[in-house]
Amino acid sequence: MSFVAPESGLLAEVSAIAREAGNAILAIYRDEFAVEHKDDASPLTAADLAAQRVIAAGLARIAPDVPVLSEEARAAPWEQRRSWSRYWLVDPLDGTREFVKRNGEFTVNIALIEDHRPVLGVVLAPVTGELYAAADGQGAWLQQHATGQWQSIGVRALAAPAVVAGSRSHGNDTHAFLDALLGTPYQPFPMGSSLKFCLIARAVADLYLRLGPTSEWDTAAAQCVLEQAGGAVLDLSGEPLRYNTKESVLNPEFLAVGDRSVEWKARLGKARPA
Predict the structure, then answer these.
(1) Are 120 and 224 in contact (CB under 8 A)?
(2) In this predicted model, what pLDDT tens digit does every residue of 9-46 receive, in sequence order?
(3) For a FRET experiment, which of 9, 65, 131, 252 has its CA 20 to 30 Å from that of 172?
(4) In the chain, how many H helices and how many E strands?
(5) Which of 232, 20, 229 is nearest to 133 (CA)?
(6) How do beta strands 117-125 and 207-210 pair?
(7) What separation in angstroms does the CA of 209 have from each of 89, 94, 117, 194, 227?
(8) Mean pLDDT of 211-221
(9) β-strand 207-210 against 162-167: which pairing, if any?
(10) Spatial separation of the C-alpha atoms in residues 110 and 11, rounded to whole Å
C-alpha cells in the first residue's frame, strides 16, 4: 500500500503547530532559563509553558470543538473526561530532564485520540528538526527539517542482536526481563523522551521496554507513529495500550516493538515476573 505524504490536511496542520511550539522552545533553550519543580518533583521550565500556549492556541484554531488534555494544563475531571470519544492528548515538552541537561533529546508530542486509541500523532525533536507524523490511513512519515521532503518510514524484522531503546534518565532495571523476553544478547540504545518509539518506527531500534510509571501524554503521539510504521505498543499482558479508560492518566508498564510477527504476547507471559 502506498501513502501520500502529509503536505496538506489535518496532519499537516498539526505538524505546523508542533513546529511553532518547537520554535518557542528553542528560543528559551538557547538562553539561560530557570528550572522549577512540580508537586511530583519533575522539572518545569518556561519552555514547557511557552509550548503549551502555542499548542493550545493552534488546536483551538483548527479544531475548536475538540477538547484537549495536556500535561501542562489542569486536567478535566474524570466525570467529564470519561464521555470523551475524541480529544487531543498533548505533552508540550516531553523530556524536560533532557532539556535541562541540554542534550537535545526532548520532543513536542501531539496526538488525536478516538475511541481510546491514537489515530493521529506528531512528534517533533526541536533541536534536530526531525518531525515524525502519522495518521490512520496515511502511514508514518519523517521530515528532517521544516523545509525538507517527507520520507515514508517503517519498522524492520527482529534479528539478533536486537537493538533495545531505553530511557536516558529513568534507571528502571530491565535487564532480567529483557534477557527472558529475548533469550539472546542485545544492544542497548539509551535515548530520551518519546524518541525511543521513533527509533523503532524508522528501523534503527527493535523494541523498548518500560517498567515504571509514564503518563498517557508521554506515549500517545509516538504510539501512533510506531503503529502506523508497522509496530505495536503492548501492555505486559500483550494487549495494545489504550487511552482514557480510567480516572488515572498513568499508563501500565509496556513494551514497544517493531516486528509484530513475533509472538510477543506469549513471550511476555513467560518473561513477566510472577
Answers:
(1) yes
(2) 999 999 999 999 999 999 999 887 777 777 665 767 88
(3) 131
(4) 8, 14
(5) 229
(6) unpaired
(7) 22, 18, 20, 12, 16
(8) 96
(9) parallel
(10) 10
Residue 65: count of CB within 10 angstroms of its CB: 6
| The residue count for the chain | 274
φ/ψ of 239, rounded to 5, equals: -100, 145
3-class SS of residue 227: helix
Phi, psi of 37 (to 5 degrees): -135, 140
pLDDT at 37: 74
> What letter would DSSP give residue 138?
T
CB 60 within 8 A of CB 48: no
Nine cell digits for residue 179: 534477557
Task: Report helix angle 175-182 to 264-271, nearest 10.
Answer: 130
Q: Which sign, positive or negative, has the C-alpha torsion 59, 135, 168, 172?
A: positive
d(CA 74, CA 111): 18
Widest pairwise Cα distance in the chain = 51
Mean pLDDT of 193-212: 97
**Residues β-bridged to residue 108:** 124
Q: Band the pLDDT of 167: cuts 50, 70, 90.
A: confident
